[in-house]
Amino acid sequence: MTTAFDLLADRILSGGAATTDDALAVLRTADAELMSVVAAAGRLRREHFGNTVKVNYLVNLKSGLCPENCNYCSQALGSQAPVLKYSWLSKDETLAQAGAGLRGGATRVCMVSSGRGPSERDIDKVVEMTSALKDAHEGVEVCACLGLLKGGQAERLKAAGVDAYNHNINTAESNHDNIVQTHTYEDRVDTIGKAKDAGLSPCSGLIAGLGETDEQLVEALFALRELDADSIPVNFLMPFDGTPYENTWELSPTRCVKILAMARFVCPDKEIRIAGGREMHLRTLQATALHVANSIFLGDYLTSEGQDALADLEMLRDNGFVILGMDQGAFDELIEEHRAKVAGRAVGGCGSACGSSCSDACGGHDEPDSPVIRRRGAGTDVAANA
């Protein structure tokens, strides 16, 4: 039976575009019709990306200590979340962390630092790190996420070999002042413009679950379409204890899939990345969501743990996906290497998102449903989850 969503996919595949009414209809679909939405949006995903998944890896260069008051963020001014706090990683530390992700299957390294925006000395550090990373790993993509850019900084990053710049709009312009007051929506759009003008691939997305309305979610996606973001990370709020959004639970797994499907209909040929909160909010629908999205982060996030990297890779293979740039044989070998690594670790662990990589340095875990604070990888002496 042909559904309204099949007809929408037909229209888009024929060169048309989704309207705001189309996007709202996707968000407001009954849960019983979820798979009809996924099937139709999946046609667009396969048209542009086949069965490939782009795997990205985060390196948190500088954690916490941020002067901005983004209410959702565990690193923000005023946050009492017990996250790791450290100043800049050294070049060698950055190479070690990035190398773990690349060996784990990632093709893009996202280098992130907390703060309002980089100083010229900070840009010097990232330039040096990028040069070293490109020398050590042929073909690696580098995305920088350093906050609000000043004139000339994007050009310096581009000249150093940085491929993309991430700066999320996070929410609709009409909702922006409700979630942060120390910078404006226009500040964020200006930085995306600076990155585009310098020839960097613009990466910009949103956070769902911030109290926004359906209309504001649609507003944000259409703004991203207008900005022509090449990659769109879709985050789902992680309500860290000690932040203004603690105990904020607005999302269900089906709601999250509909948001991702809406993003695919609105931006059919763009990289739609399932970002922070994937495991917590999608839960058993993670694989279903990948039939409309085409990109994930491997392993852990900036200040929270993700599911075990082996579980990420097995989920991809079990559902018929391959890593972008890797053939099936190499993908199978990668999974076997991960299995051997896991088998070589001490039996035990905490049984949470740490999987088998947990150690005494983990520090224990929060109550169920709370974000698990990252205690491994960058800024620690514990091996990364990659």
TrEMBL record:
Family: Belongs to the radical SAM superfamily. Biotin synthase family.
Native organism: Nocardioides albus
Listed InterPro entries: Aldolase_TIM, BATS_dom, Biotin_synth/BioAB, Biotin_synthase, Elp3/MiaA/NifB-like_rSAM, rSAM, rSAM_sf
One Gene Ontology term from the biological process aspect of the record: biotin biosynthetic process
Top-level taxonomy: Bacteria, Bacillati, Actinomycetota, Actinomycetes, Propionibacteriales
Record GO terms (molecular function): 2 iron, 2 sulfur cluster binding; 4 iron, 4 sulfur cluster binding; biotin synthase activity; iron ion binding
UniProt-recorded name of the protein: Biotin synthase
HAMAP family assigned: BioB
Gene from which the chain derives: bioB
SUPFAM superfamilies: Radical SAM enzymes (SSF102114)
Stretch list, region Disordered: 364-386
Pathway(s) annotated for this protein in UniProt: Cofactor biosynthesis; biotin biosynthesis; biotin from 7,8-diaminononanoate: step 2/2
Cofactor, how bound (note): Binds 1 [2Fe-2S] cluster. The cluster is coordinated with 3 cysteines and 1 arginine.
Domain Radical SAM core: 51-275
UniProt: [2Fe-2S] cluster binding residues: C110, C143, C203, R273
Enzyme nomenclature, EC number: 2.8.1.6
NCBIfam families membership: bioB
